[in-house]
Amino acid sequence: MHDKTVRRRRAVLALLVVLSLILLTAYFGEAPSGRLHSVQRSFLTVISPLQDGANKALKPVRDLVGWIGDTLHAKGERDQLRKQNEVLRREVIAERGEKQAYAELQSLVGLDHRLGIGNYRPVTATVIGKSPNLWYSTVTIDRGEADGVRVNDPVINAEGLVGKVTLAASDGAYVSLITDSSVGVSARIGPGGAVGILQPKVGDPSDLLLQFLPSNASAPRGAMVLTSGTVSGRDDSLYPRGVPIGEVTSVNSESAYRSVNVHPLANLHNLDTVQVLTATPGSLPSNLARLARNLPPGAGATSPNGETLARVGGGG
Amino acid sequence: MTAPVSTGLLARIAALVVVAVLIQISVVSEVPVFGVNVDLSPLLVVFIGLLCGATMGAVAGFALGLLVDLTLLQTLGVSSLIFTVVGYLAGRLREVRDPQAALTPLLVGAAGTAVASVGYSLVEFLLGVDAPVSLQLLRQVLLGVVVNAIVAPAVWVLVRRALEGSLPEDPRRRRRHRTYTTGGLSPLSRA
C-alpha cells in the first residue's frame, strides 16, 4: 500500500514536470502566431473582463496603499523636484533663444516633423493587471484589436515612454514595459545626440542601460534620453521620434563603447492610464512600420555603432 | 502517507488559486514594498503543499503556474515547472518532518520564495535572456524573499482558514493524537 502511494506520488510529479517541459519547449520554439500563443490570446479575451472587474473592485484598496506609500516618499521627492526645477528654469531660458533660431532655420529648409505623435491615433487604456515577476515586466490593458491596437504599437503615458504592445486580443492587450528583458529601444541622448540601444538591467527594475554609444559620446548627468525614431531589429517597435524615456544617471566606459545608466521618467510601478499609439492602415506611421519590418537583414543605413537603422522620422 | 482528496478540497483550492492570481495582478503587483513586489504565488503553493501533501502541492503548483503564465503572457511552462517542484517539496516536508513550530509558515514561505526566484533565474538564463545582469539581481531576489517572509504568516492563516474542513487527515498526526489521548498522559484521562 505504502509502495503504491509512493509510486503514484512520484508518477504525478514526473508527469507534471514532463508536461511543463513540453509546454515550455513548444512555446519557446514556436512563432508568435503559433498555436500556444493563440491559446494565450484567447485566454486574454476570456479573462480580461474578469480582470477589469477585479481591477475596478479593488481600486480603493490599491489607492489607499498607494497613498500611504506616496505620502512617505513625497517629502524627499519634493526637495529633489525643487532642485530640478531650478536647473530646468535656467535651461528653459537658454533654450528659448535656440528655439527661435531653430524655427527660423526650419522654415527656411522646409522640414517638418512628419512622424510626430500627432500622426498616430492615440487610444487611452486602463491598466487592469501587472506581472509581479522580476523577469517579466508586463501589464494588461483593457483595449485590444477592436480599438485598433496592434502588436508592436508604442505605449506612452503623460511622463514618457512606457513600452510596446506584445500581444493583442479583441478586448485587451499585453504591454511589455521598457523594463522587460525582451524589450530594446533605439534611443538617443538629447535631440541630435548619440544613438544607442536602451535595455533594462535585470534585477534593477528602476534602471535602464543605454548601450553601444560611441566612446566619445557626450552624456552629461541629467541629460534627457529620447526615442530615436529608428529600429534596431525586424521585431522592434517603431517608436515615434523624440518621446522622452528617462534621464542619464551615470556613465560607464568599460569597453570600446560607452554605456549610460538611465532612470525611466514614467513611474512603471504605478501605471493606471496609458495611451497606445495606434496607426490607421495606410497612414504614414503604419507604412513606415511595415517598411521597417520588411527590411532585409543588413539593409538600411548603418549607424557608427553598427546598429541597422530604418530611419523614419523627418528631419535630422 | 497521502490521504484521499475530496472534491470539496479541490474546489476550494481552485477558487483560492483564481482569487489569489486576480488579487496579485490587480492590487499586490501594483504596490511595491522596498522596491519589490510581494509575490503571493509561491506562498500559496507552499502552503497548499504544507497542508495537503506532496501530490496536491505539485498539482496545485502546476495549475497556478499555468494560470500565471497564461494571464501574464509569460513563457508557458516556466511557472508551472517551478511551482510544481516548489509545491511537491513543501508537501514532502509535511509528510516527512511535519513541522509544527510557530515560525514554520515564515521559514517555509521564505524558502519557497527563494527556490522559486532562483528557479526563475536559472530557467531564464537557460532560455537565453537577452539582457545584462548585474549584482542587483541578487539584491532583488533577497529583498523579494524578505518581503514574502514578512507577509507569509498572514497568507498562511488565510490559506488554512480557506481550506479548513476539507483537509485530509494526516495519518501521522492521527496516530500521535491517539497515543496522547490513550496513553494515560492526557489531562482528560485524569479527570
Explain what the structure shows.
The complex is a heterodimer of chains A (316) and B (191). Helix content of chain A is 35%, strand content 26%. Chain A has helices at 2-29, 35-57, 59-109, 284-293, and strands spanning 121-130, 138-141, 154-156, 161-168, 173-177, 185-189, 195-201, 204-213, 224-227, 244-252, 258-264, 273-278, 301-302, 308-309. Residues 110-115 and 298-316 of chain A have low confidence and may be disordered. The longest helix of chain B is centred in the C-terminal third of the chain and has 28 residues, at 136-163. Chain B has 8 helices and no strands. Chain B is mainly α and 191 residues long. Helices cover 72% and strands 0% of the residues of chain B. Chain B starts with 6 loop residues before the first helix and ends with a helix. Chain B is globular and about 45 Å long. Classes of the chains: A alpha+beta (316), B mainly alpha (191). At the A-B interface, helix 1, helix 2, helix 3, strand 1 and strand 7 of A face helix 1, helix 3, helix 4, helix 5 and helix 6 of B.
The biggest beta sheet of chain B reads:
none
How far apart are the termini of chain B? 34 Å
User: What is the gyration radius of chain B calculated from CA atoms?
Assistant: 18 Å
Rg of chain A to the nearest angstrom?
A: 22 Å
Give the overall silhouette of chain A. Answer: globular
Largest interface: A-B, 66 and 62 residues
Strand content of chain B: under 5%
Number of strands of chain A: 14
Secondary-structure content class of chain A:
alpha+beta
Helix coverage percent of chain A: 25-40%
Low-confidence stretches of chain B: 177-191
The percentage of residues in β strands of chain A lies in: 25-35%
Per-chain topology:
The complex is a heterodimer of chains A (316) and B (191).
Chain A: H1 2-29, H2 35-57, H3 59-109, E1 121-130, E2 138-141, E3 154-156, E4 161-168, E5 173-177, E6 185-189, E7 195-201, E8 204-213, E9 224-227, E10 244-252, E11 258-264, E12 273-278, H4 284-293, E13 301-302, E14 308-309
Antiparallel strand pairs in A: 1-2, 1-12, 2-5, 3-4, 3-12, 4-5, 6-7, 6-9, 7-8, 8-11, 9-10, 10-11, 13-14
Chain B: H1 7-26, H2 40-52, H3 54-71, H4 78-96, H5 104-126, H6 136-163, H7 171-182, H8 187-190
